[in-house]
Amino acid sequence: MVLIVLNLIFCLAFIGFAYVNLNDKDSWLWIPIYMLASICCGLAVFHFYYPLIYLGAILFYLVYAIILFFAKDGVLDWLMKYRRPSLVESMQATKPYIEKTREFFGLLIVSAALGMNYFVAVNL
Question: pTM score, two decimals?
Fold first, then answer.
């Protein structure tokens, strides 16, 4: 029951994340990222699991997260160079590190949700 509720929450949240990316300059990338995760979580609510899709998506998401971590004005710069200022004081990405850092954490959230479903699927 807990897994169903978590997957339902993730499914709806990822739809919302995709929606707020509609007007972004790289929406062509982020809408599919969030919608794939939303569909996977939505199907998991009904006990349909696809572990190979989870693994492929998680691999892509984590590789992209590593790229964002080390990119110029990425997560590492946010930590070291900019000394971790708030990322949520405004919805506008007014500083160069905000967008990449938010995207990094979004990828980690999506990877965690799919990872949870992967471990459930392989232990059935």
Answer: 0.90
